[in-house]
Amino acid sequence: MRVLIAFIGMVLSVVACADEAPKYQEGKQYHALAEPIRTDNPDKIEVREMFAYTCGHCFRFDPLLHGWAEQQADDIYLVRTPMVWAGAMEPYARAYYTANTLKVLDESHMDLFNAIHLKRTRFGSVEDFAEFFAQYDIDSDTFIKTFESFGVNSLLRQGDAKARAAEISGTPELVIDGRYRISASDTGGHKQMLEVADYLIEQLRAE
Q1: Contact 123, 92 (CB under 8 A)
Q2: Nearest Cα to Cα of residue 156 among 114, 96, 196
Q3: Whole-prediction pTM value?
Q4: Strand partners, 80
Q5: How many other C-beta atoms are found inside a 10 Å radius of the C-beta of residue 122?
Q6: Per residue in 57-95, pLDDT tens?
Q7: Are 51 and 63 in contact (CB under 8 A)?
Q8: What's the CATH architecture for 26-206?
Q9: Distance between CA 79 and CA 57 in Å, rounded?
Q10: What digits encode the pLDDT tens for the residues 116-147?
Q11: Domain boundaries defined on the chain
């Protein structure tokens, strides 16, 4: 009888431990950064998307991320960083920072994705980008000047530094509050990335 009671106690202990196990585990569904990255808004929980306009996965993920962001509380701060894996990607990153500087990013962000992936528009020069952004009442000279400005150069360097610090290996990926990195390859898909983000955000709020 005592053996049976001991066995039952052991089983209940294992079950209790299983119930207490976290839903997601560091090193599996997300990764803690070796060194935290400084966030843009220290008063809020930052969710940073690492993306590329030329990335088809990012094109499909963006509507999910947009819908998710609209449902978040005021303590969440969403920001994006365009990746530059190669020289050919730099103009697209410059276009993102230029649009943000000229205050037309909200209107142009998904439009640029659609132009690239649905309309198959080719952007071979800064003039091509300037022609695209003319629809937002940005004259060509202003766009080109901003595109090639010191400010945009600085933003490119800052974005590259954050990507290196976060050890980004693909797109899209999320960096939560400068502390955790989430990728679709670890979570199993884009929707799951946002579920893990929700989990980490709740952990951060609890802190």
Answers
A1: yes
A2: 96
A3: 0.86
A4: 49
A5: 9
A6: 999 999 999 999 999 999 999 999 999 988 899 999 999
A7: no
A8: 3-Layer(aba) Sandwich (3.40)
A9: 18
A10: 999 999 999 999 999 999 999 999 999 999 99
A11: 26-206
